[in-house]
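**User:** My hope is that you can spare some time for a protein that puzzles me. As I understand it, each token names a local backbone shape. I would be glad if you read both lines and explained how they fit together. The protein I mean follows directly.
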Amino acid sequence: MFAVLLSEGMKPFYQIVASFPTIFFTILLIVVVIYWLFTILGVFDISLLDFDVDISVEGDISSANALTGLMMRFGLHGVPVTIIISLVVLFGWLICYYLVYFFSPLFSSGLLRLLLGLPALVGSLYIAVMLTALVIKPLRPFFHKTQQETIKRVLGQVAIVRSSVVNGQFGEVTLADGGAGLILKARAMGNTEFHRGDRVVLLEYLPELYVYRVISEQEFLGKSSS
């Protein structure tokens, strides 16, 4: 196997994946492969890159919200962001590779490679996004069911604040699940504010915001004993 990888016949393959524009996806693909290896080993969580979506009281839209809106527009939602990114990178790498492979004479010179490389890169990315949207569409019900089961399981559990703060507009907590741990979006009640390392209890799930309402462990124990 290693002899095949090191053979002279593999030289065109290595030239394509290590040159512009394919190298853009090659680097991302390496990162994705490393991520999934660490996820399999339990070092990372599958939702590691899931980002918070917040709109301020004034209605200002953050960059995260803009990205979320863009992903919703292209149908990139309903499954963990890490899976979406992985599929986009994989499809993009394959499409870009074969574009350069089949039209290699056009990419022979440095100037043409530069002039044609950027459109090839953008086109590959766009097609990859469209393919990813098609692939994840039938997967959404599965992840929705999994999410519902997770919600039932984690309510009433103690979590640790992982973000700098958890208040009524922002926050993340970590819940130990015997593996890498779950990273969950959290919101405090009223003007209450928690800080990194505080112990909180997941009191309820707010499906319209995709977040958990939390209270302090002491308050929860007080309510339970009363």
